[in-house]
C-alpha cells in the first residue's frame, strides 16, 4: 500500500476568537478542538503518518497533552510552524520528505468535521489529477465590489465554490511547487495550497465535494455550529 501523509496545521493564534488560548486547543465536546482532526486521520486507513505543525511554544503540550494522552499512533512528528501559513505548510512538507510519501493531505486543524468520506473523495481526486481540494458550491449570491463598497459584478453562482480542506496532492508535485515558491520569495496573494501548485507548476486542482458541516472555526459562533455538527461532541 502507498504511504500517504497528513499535515495538520495548528500553529495559528486565532485572534478573532478572543481570549488567550489558541483556538485549536479550545474545548469542544470535552476534548481539544485539534483532537478531532487528528482522530479523523488516525481512523483513515489510507493515511499512514500524521505530522502536526504547531507553535514552537505548544510542541510539548501537543506531544503530552494531546498525542500521548489520546493515544494517537500515526502522529509521530510534531514540529514548529512558521510566521505565516504557507511557511508552516513548507515545514510540514520538508518533514514529510524524511520517508517515502506518495500523497499528502494538508488540513487545517480548526476544521473538526472532516469525515472519512471527504478524505476518500479528495484522495481519489488527487490520484486522478495530482491535485485536489474539498469544497462546496456556494449557496448565496456573491457580489464583487469596488474600493468604495459599490457592487460592480455578480459572478455566476453555478461556477463558484467555497474552498475547504483537506487539500491533497501528489507529494513530489506539491513539494516542487513550495520549493519554487520559497526560491522566488513572492508570496503575494497566496491563500491556499492549490493556488501555490497552480501558480508554480501550472497543474490545476480538481474540486470535489466536502461538506457544509466541514466549517473552519474562526469565531465563537463557529464553535456553536461545530458542537451541533460533531458526532459525539457533548453539550
Structure, described:
The protein has seven helices and eleven strands. By secondary structure, it is α/β, with parallel strands linked by helices. It starts with a strand and ends in a 6-residue tail after the last helix. Helices cover 34% and strands 23% of the residues. Helix 3 (85-96) crosses helix 5 and helix 5 packs across helix 6 (193-201). It has helices spanning 33-42, 59-68, 85-96, 116-129, 171-184, 193-201, 220-229; strands spanning 4-10, 27-28, 31-32, 49-54, 75-80, 103-108, 131-137, 144-145, 151-153, 161-170, 206-209. A hairpin with a 2-residue loop joins strand 2 (27-28) and strand 3 (31-32). The strands form three sheets. A seven-stranded mixed beta sheet has the order 5-4-1-6-10-7-11, with helices on both faces. Strands 2-3 form a two-stranded antiparallel sheet. The protein has a two-stranded antiparallel ribbon with strand order 8-9. The longest helix is centred in the middle third of the chain and has 14 residues, at 116-129. The model has no long low-confidence stretch (mean pLDDT 92). The radius of gyration is 18 Å and the shape is globular.
How many extended strands? 11
What would the principal axes of the Cα set say about the shape? globular
The largest sheet has its strands arranged as 5-4-1-6-10-7-11
Helix content: 25-40%
Radius of gyration: 18 Å
Could you provide a short overview of the structure?
34% of the residues lie in helices and 23% in strands. The chain has helices at 33-42, 59-68, 85-96, 116-129, 171-184, 193-201, 220-229; strands at residues 4-10, 27-28, 31-32, 49-54, 75-80, 103-108, 131-137, 144-145, 151-153, 161-170, 206-209. The strands form 3 sheets. A 7-stranded mixed beta sheet has the order 5-4-1-6-10-7-11, sandwiched between helices. A two-stranded antiparallel ribbon has the order 2-3.
